[in-house]
Amino acid sequence: MSKKHVKITVNGTAHEALAEPRTLLIHFLREALELKGPHIGCDTGHCGACTVDLDGRSVKSCMVFVAQADGHEVTTIEGVGAPGALHALQEAFREHHGLQCGYCTPGMITRAWRLLQENPAPTEAEIRMGISGNLCRCTGYQNIVKSIQAAAATLSAAGQEAAE
Ligand code: FES
Ligand code: FES
């Protein structure tokens, strides 16, 4: 199959590459760009481990062809926060034990990151609904929900401080 020239902005940096159009976005991110944060859990759109942000929407990157992301903006967990500059969600997951094995965590946090931009003060039910496409085999979700609630409170307090 002939390769297609794609240009995708990932975490604020423009990347150009030749890729087979049928390449999945998750494989492009992990293999061509070496962004190992998004994980592959099922490859069938069920688990959410591969969740990234595409033009302001959470998507499962195992369900997106790289050709569909051509000309678009992608954010992965590496763009949400970094060692030494963790996002409030990452801090909250650490503090409130929102992870055990950590396999679901990059996708879970990337999803929660978009959720809190859409709804900065979600109820517990809204959080549970918002992350319903992301499966965790370890935590029972209790501490994940607590972590997202804590991050929402931190971000809200920081926003109020900035406005004062
Ligand atoms: S790897 Fe994409 S949803 Fe499971
Ligand atoms: S922390 Fe292990 S799958 Fe979620």
From TrEMBL:
<keyword id="KW-0479">Metal-binding</keyword>
<dbReference type="InterPro" id="IPR036010">
    <property type="entry name" value="2Fe-2S_ferredoxin-like_sf"/>
</dbReference>
<keyword id="KW-0001">2Fe-2S</keyword>
<dbReference type="InterPro" id="IPR002888">
    <property type="entry name" value="2Fe-2S-bd"/>
</dbReference>
<dbReference type="InterPro" id="IPR012675">
    <property type="entry name" value="Beta-grasp_dom_sf"/>
</dbReference>
<dbReference type="InterPro" id="IPR001041">
    <property type="entry name" value="2Fe-2S_ferredoxin-type"/>
</dbReference>
<keyword id="KW-0560">Oxidoreductase</keyword>
<protein>
    <submittedName>
        <fullName>(2Fe-2S)-binding protein</fullName>
    </submittedName>
</protein>
<dbReference type="Pfam" id="PF01799">
    <property type="entry name" value="Fer2_2"/>
</dbReference>
<keyword id="KW-0411">Iron-sulfur</keyword>
<dbReference type="InterPro" id="IPR051452">
    <property type="entry name" value="Diverse_Oxidoreductases"/>
</dbReference>
<feature type="domain" description="2Fe-2S ferredoxin-type">
    <location>
        <begin position="4"/>
        <end position="80"/>
    </location>
</feature>
<dbReference type="InterPro" id="IPR006058">
    <property type="entry name" value="2Fe2S_fd_BS"/>
</dbReference>
<dbReference type="Pfam" id="PF00111">
    <property type="entry name" value="Fer2"/>
</dbReference>
<dbReference type="InterPro" id="IPR036884">
    <property type="entry name" value="2Fe-2S-bd_dom_sf"/>
</dbReference>
<keyword id="KW-0408">Iron</keyword>
